[in-house]
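sorry for the late reply, my laptop died twice this morning and i had to redo everyting from scratch. anyway the thing you sent over, i finally got around to it. pasting the sequence first so we're on the same page, its 346 residues, then the predicted structure underneath. double check i copied it right bc i was rushing
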Amino acid sequence: MIHQLQIEHFRGFYERRTVTFAVPSGNPASGLTVLVGPNNSGKTTVVEAIRLVSQDAVPIDVEHRHDGHRVRITVTDQNGRTRTLTNPDLGAITVVEGDPAALQLQNVRFVPSRRAWTAYTGHQAQAEGQYWSMLARHRGPADEFFVARLASFSLAEKTRYHATLQKLIPQMADWRIDLSRGQHFVQYTTVAGAKHSSDLFGDGMASLFRIALAVHDTTTNTDGATQCIAIDEPELSLHPQAQKRLAFHLAEVAKTRQVIVTTHSPYFVNWDDLIAGARIYRLAQGKNGVSIHEQSQATVKTLEGLFKDWQKPNLLDPVAREIFFADEVVFLKDRKTSAFYESSRV
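ok and here's the structure:
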């Protein structure tokens, strides 16, 4: 699993910045790392850096480098092995230094923020490794191979995938792969019994299908198997209740797998998760590039005390969680009750 990531002179990162990731311990959310911050603060860059360093000699656009400086993206795994992607001559051509086994492309499932997929496909069925390797290297506006991946499922795999889908989309009763004019497509059935093809999906349901596949296509084996899922802005196009369901499910997944999430939604920052070992980082863009901030363990202990105070639920509601997303926080004291209230504002 990924222990630590260092980024230097790549996109908005100038000076070396470090992210240490949560490692699952068997408890819900123990393997969850959440990245928050304003737009253009570097959250997606962290995920992109992991994607790049997991590959061999990926060229880097001039717009993403800093003139006169080497790009350095270094990942360290749990065993202390390091792997670095850098450009020795300061140009686009990169090399990989260190131990290639520290991180490999097939061991991470990357889910981008734009998760559209073509409803019909003439492509042949896609095996798990083939599909995710292709998706990480060649990302287009829509995933043309998603239906082909589902078409490769055995009945047991379909049953397992469907169990995840039902947790995230309770209004869907069933789905199957069907064929029309030589092209495969997804036909789904609602709990009311109506049948539709997936070209009628809204963006939110289409998104959940792809996130569920990333969860499905990971294992808990320790011999080089996939153990990390990185999801960019999972809340996009989702109703608040759907966001809550997804956040709860990802916390369950993080019992045994690393889950990395970038988000603008307070529903993906939960006090229970932080107390269980999840890590949250706030990124900000300043004069010296991206800065990264993590709350201390002392703060987590304080939050744990507040969490156990059932008489003050307003201290822990979604509005309170917006403190992680606001630029400024004002605390107000009620003169009659001496209670404190916080107001977050940009």
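Residues 113-223 form one domain.
thats about all i looked at so far, will dig more tmrw
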